[in-house]
From TrEMBL:
<keyword id="KW-0132">Cell division</keyword>
<feature type="compositionally biased region" description="Polar residues">
    <location>
        <begin position="85"/>
        <end position="106"/>
    </location>
</feature>
<keyword id="KW-0175">Coiled coil</keyword>
<feature type="region of interest" description="Disordered">
    <location>
        <begin position="81"/>
        <end position="106"/>
    </location>
</feature>
<dbReference type="Pfam" id="PF04977">
    <property type="entry name" value="DivIC"/>
</dbReference>
<dbReference type="InterPro" id="IPR007060">
    <property type="entry name" value="FtsL/DivIC"/>
</dbReference>
<dbReference type="GO" id="GO:0051301">
    <property type="term" value="P:cell division"/>
</dbReference>
<feature type="coiled-coil region">
    <location>
        <begin position="30"/>
        <end position="64"/>
    </location>
</feature>
<protein>
    <submittedName>
        <fullName>Cell division protein FtsL</fullName>
    </submittedName>
</protein>
<keyword id="KW-0131">Cell cycle</keyword>
Amino acid sequence: MKKRMNLKNMVIIILIAILVISYVRQELTMNKIHKDIEAKQTQLNELQDKNKKLQDEVNQSSTDEYIERMARERLGMIKDGEKVITNSDSPQDKQNNSEAKNNQNK
């Protein structure tokens, strides 16, 4: 009778141990999944912010003011009647001036 109780107790203890191990493994898996979700949520938020900034740039780039500013800054365009003032101290201007003087002397 004692042997049966010991065997019964042993089976119960083994079952409880299996359940505890299973529970702990599930908790570890759930914690990992929650961390992954948080990381993905952070990444999603960053991408949404970047997307919003890019969308704002796209919206801004279609305005006349933006197009005019880019034409002036990048292409050096001017409006009719505007006077262009250049800095004669720039290396490019110095090179152009020296080339012009050399051409005049020939």
